[in-house]
Amino acid sequence: MSLPQKKEFRIPQWLMLLIVILAISVITAIINPRFLRINNIMNIFEQISVLGLVAVGATIIIISGNFDISVGAIIGLSACVMAICINAGMNSFLASLVCILISMSCTTLNGVLSILFKAPSFIISLATTSIFTGLGLFITKGVIRTVYGQFDFLSKTRLFGFIPLLFIICLLGFVMVHLLLKYTQVGRRLFAFGCNTRAAYLAGIDIVKNKLLFFAMNGFFVGLAAILLLSRVGAALPSTGSGYELEAMGAVVIGGVSINGGKGDVIGPFFGVLLMGLISNVLNILGVNPYLQEIASGIIIILSLGISVLRTKKD
Amino acid sequence: MEEILRLENINKSYSGVKVLYDVNLSLSKGEVLCLAGENGAGKSTLIKILSGAETPDSGKLTIKGHEYQKMQPAEAINLGIVTIYQDVDLVDTLTVADNIFLNNEIMKHGFIVDKDEEIKEAQRLLDSLNMKIKADSLVSDLSPGQKQNLQIAKAMHKKAEILILDEPTASLGEEETEALIRLVEKLRNDGLGIIYISHYLDEIFTLGDTVLVLKDGHHVVTRKISETTEDQLIHDMVGRDTSAMYKRKAYYSRGDNALKVSHLSRGKRVHDITLSVSRGEILGIGGLVGAGRTEFVRLIAGADKAESGTVELDGRDITPSDPKDGIRNGISYISEDRKGEGLFLLRSAKENIGIIKNNRKKIALNLPEEDKDVREQIEKLSIKVFSPEQEVSTLSGGNQQKVAVSRWLLANGDIFIFDEPSKGVDIGAREEIYQIMENLAEQGKIILMVSSTMTELISMSDRIAVMREGELVTVVDRKDFSEDYLLKLYIQSNKEEERK
User: Which residues are paired to B296 by β-bridges?
Assistant: First the structure.
């Protein structure tokens, strides 16, 4: 009979990321002390809040063993509709609700189609990406929708005069999902579902209902991200959110969530998002050519995938 | 006759469980060697070693006079060893000729496939083997028997000298079986060495020159067919030391026939099964692999939906529509495929054990209660983990099985269905799992146990239901338990019965 092996100590992914973040910060601060100004640091926090919320949703979806790459298009669509609502004189709270509702409907539709056609959600969301973008173009007639000065209290508000409210909202999103994963039955179902869907089914977990729930939850956070984005930018285009889906997936995977599903947490993705925001800030501060910055973010995602593959191999 | 294949002292184990002990085998040109033995006797492992799919732990392979420690699959094919497995591996969307020449196409002008030439060549080959197959027809249009034939034709095209057939008639009808047997006889007369695996004794006696009997991985005996009888062979296959058996303390059947299954059917694999089980009873379900046993119990658990028939508990209809429904009615199904559909391998022992009970919670988990429950189970079943947080994939087979069982113990249902409870489980843990089953029976639970191991069935069951080809043959009472009798029930073909 084999005895249990000795537990090997493995540095948690978030700690690794934190070390990397601190190292980059120290080096940058030595080169350019301006980096350490409170204003700059709060800027980073504000900048990552939209990406952060998208990553929160992506964490749920990826743990469930799915992908939703249409979230960029959904951000564009729901932000445009929200801008139109505000322009039409709708109260901004109501308009925010509309935004979240649209986003949740879109992601849930991805889930429904994936179940209906027994197709991987990756492929389904690839197709719906162009549907959502097209819908956005149709509604806006391709014209930028501006809400300058009508919906900026979110982005202008700073707690204690310096902490951006946007970051607080993003942080709340992370806390919510952290609690969900650790302390609720839905969290357990999520891991079970992502780890072994057939076993989850035999354990009495309703596969259809739960899959839709996971997609709807993703939609909630994506909708929230769209609201924050509109508040920050003050204008929306159907293409406003494009690119967020991949960046968020990158952050989640850097954060140690297995792309095969069933494993991970939301603390790692938080530091993944922070790392991405930090790197783009640092590249700016160091005056790196913006085109090269794009290349850098791609390289980071590839590196993170490499790490993820190595980790799963070790298991 | 000239010897072309010799195995000496082959040993093989999978993750610590030994499946072959010092097996010897010798095959000559123009000989049909039959491999016989119960499910799990090691036949499949042996042919996997021959075809290069598995590496033996120790032992010697001698092929046409050359010695090998191990082989790659491609090497085996180059040496002329071709294995034809039960699940046909042909490309359905290509033609017969395409399949024969797959990866070995006839080219013209160096890079274009010469279809006409291929079809001509293939037809010549098929005709020479007396196969009634058109070389230009699509494989998807062929019958199962024709596909089997095509596989053999493919092997002949590869210049096979040693042909290994793994239960080739399992999915064939009577006529096709006869045609296949004639074909094998022809190939033998052409000088091929043939290893033939079959559960059907009549085939072994029609075709075989020699028969090698395996039992629990041990090489029991090699006999000349002309010098043996069916009864002798059955005895070779099952006779064993009975001291290895689990001894039940008592039998607890309350005789209330609480669980009634009536006319349960689904597709071809489960046909019109009616039986009942009492509280405190362990009903064993025996039969050959593929007899429909797993398919049958899955219907009771709701893992698959029955097309017709009912399941009743105490007169109440509980025919489940899905597993969730089954669980609500107290049905626990411990699947045979532990890794594929039982455990969440990447998750902790705690989450795996708590999953069923937690699923009843509405929103928040009760973590302290879960912790207490899980620790209790770990202690009660002596599951060897260093902490409840340990990932299940790092546990041994026996401990994994205990984890899989304990989640259902925690859920505390009325009906427990064990599908191959000791599969991949080491001997020590096996004993403990039997103990758990007996305890459940003592508590008055209803227990169904699918098993391919004779000793397990005989030592654990109150009664044994025997299935064959999707049908219930009979339910055997404890006083009639004997391995010879059960095996006879398993393998007696329907054709034979009709003759009687």
Answer: none
Q: How would you class B95 by CB atoms within 10 Å of its CB: exposed for 0-12, middle for 13-18, buried for 19 or more? A: buried
Task: Give strand ranges (E) for B268-326.
Answer: 270-277, 282-286, 308-313, 316-317
> Which tokens sit at B116?
């006409």
Picking from A3, A6, A191, the nearest residue to B351 by CB comes out as A191
pLDDT of residue A7: 45
With beta carbons under 8 A apart, name residues in chain A contacting B385: 4
Residue A127: CA count within 13 A, CB half-sphere = 11
Q: Hey, which residues does B197 pair with through a beta bridge?
A: B35, B166
Rounded CA separation B496/B161 (Å): 33
SS3 B473: strand
Q: What amino acid occupies position B55?
A: T
Query: What pLDDT sits at residue B268?
Result: 85
Q: For residue A200, which residues of chain B lie inside 8 Å, CB to CB?
A: 344
Q: For residue B390, which amino acid is it?
A: Q
Token representation of residue A60:
């749920």
Name the token pair of A34. 């301006």
Interface of B with A in 364-383 (CB under 8 A): 364-365, 367
**Closest by Cα among A120, A103, A98, A102 to A111:** A120
**Phi and psi dihedrals of B108, rounded to 5?**
-120, 155
* Chain A environment of B355 (Cβ under 8 Å): 188, 192, 203
**Beta-bridge partner residues of B108:** B112
Query: How big is the CA angle at B287 (ends B274 and B275), to the nearest 5 degrees?
Result: 15
Pairwise CB contact (< 8 Å): A4 & B386: yes
Distance of CA B273 to the CA centre of its chain: 21
8 Å CB contact between A266 and A59? yes
**Using CA atoms, how far apart are residues A243 and A134, in angstroms rounded to an integer?**
16
Chain A partners within 8 Å of B394 (Cβ) = 4-5
Instruction: Please give, rounded to a whole number of angstroms, the shortest distance from the CA of A35 to a CA of chain B.
Output: 41
- The answer to whether B448 touches B260, Cβ cutoff 8 Å, is no
Q: What does the DSSP assignment read for A219-230?
A: HHHHHHHHHHHH
CB-based contact A262:B344 (threshold 8 Å): yes
Tokens for B133, please give them: 């197959």
pLDDT of residue A309: 64
Q: What are phi and psi of B4, to 5 degrees?
A: -115, -15
Maximum Cα–Cα distance across chain A:
73
Q: Determine the distance in angstroms separating the CA of B426 from the nearest CA of chain A, rounded to an integer.
A: 7
Distance CA A182, CA A185 (A): 9
Interval B410-433: pLDDT, tens: 999 999 999 999 887 766 788 889
Please report how the helices A267-285 and A165-183 are oriented relative to each other, as an axis angle in degrees rounded to 10: 150
Q: pLDDT tens for residues B371-382?
A: 999 999 999 998
Q: Is the separation of the CB atoms in B29 and B73 below 8 Å?
A: no
For A174, A235, B219, the CA distances from A230, given in Å and listed in that order, are: 20, 6, 76
Over range B405-414, report the average pLDDT: 93
pLDDT band at B385 (very low <50, low <70, confident <90, very high): confident
Categorize the per-residue pLDDT at B266 as very low, low, confident or very high, splitting at 50, 70 and 90.
very high
pTM confidence score: 0.76
Q: Looking at this predicted complex, what is its ipTM?
A: 0.85
Rounded to whole angstroms, the Cα distance separating B459 from A150 reads 80
Judge contact between B190 and B28, C-beta under 8 A. Answer: no
Reported as type and span, the H/E element at residue B457 is helix B454-460
Q: What confidence tier does A133 reach under pLDDT thresholds 50, 70, 90?
A: very high
Alpha carbons A225 and A246: distance in angstroms, whole number: 15
d(Cα B202, Cα B200) in Å, to the nearest integer? 6
Residue B412: count other Cβ atoms within 10 Å of its Cβ.
12
Residue in the structure block whose two tokens are 């033939």: B196
If residue B145 lies in a helix (H) or strand (E), which one and from where to where?
A: helix B144-157
